[in-house]
Write a structure and sequence with these properties.
Elements: H1 12-23, H2 29-42, H3 47-54, H4 58-70, H5 72-81, H6 86-94, H7 109-120, H8 135-144, H9 153-162
């Protein structure tokens, strides 16, 4: 037997904005679907029927119902004391995906900048017996200089491909 769905309260102004979101071509589809979920939940539809109508999983409807209920005080504050446009922004925020945790960066911006700067120097200046940097030579050089404790040639190549290499007139690596 399914659990008890969160009961929702929606003001008339919130309903207007949610309805606008469901029909707007400028509103991202995921956001429009969530707005539709909230409107249907307010009409006391069951999660299973809402999920069927918006083509998603039943548990996802429950998640968004709980998110709306948890954000209701914030929504009321935006509506009552906020400036024009605050309510729409707050609704968008409540119905948007939360930041997902990711692995922290292993290299900071200063290190990446120093790696790219090293790639811009001639290899002969570092006593390398090559005329153009290879990713392996560059990785070895930045570790030798103490810019990073360790780095793979592949990662060096990614930095150069994604960073300044596209702005250079010729590739930084041979």
């Amino acid at each position: 037997m399914p659990g008890k769905a969160a009961k929702l309260i929606i003001t008339e102004r919130q309903q207007e904005i949610l309805r606008d979101m469901t029909v707007s071509r400028a509103c991202p589809q995921g956001l429009a679907n969530r707005a539709q979920m909230i409107l249907l939940a307010f009409e006391r539809e069951r999660n299973a029927s809402i999920a069927e109508r918006v083509d998603c999983e039943r548990h996802a409807v429950g998640i968004w119902r709980r998110r709306w209920k948890a954000g209701f005080e914030k929504l009321i504050n935006a509506e009552c004391i906020g400036r024009p446009g605050d309510l729409r922004r707050t609704i968008t925020e409540v119905l948007s995906d939360e930041q997902r945790p990711g692995r922290p960066c292993k290299f900071d911006a200063d290190q990446v900048a120093l790696i790219i700067a090293t790639a811009c120097e001639p290899p002969e200046k570092s006593g390398r017996p090559v005329t153009h940097w290879t990713a392996a030579e560059l990785a070895d050089e930045v570790m030798k200089r103490g810019i990073v404790p360790s780095i793979s040639a592949r990662q060096v190549g990614r930095f150069l491909k994604d960073g300044c290499a596209s702005a250079a007139s010729e590739p930084l690596l041979a």
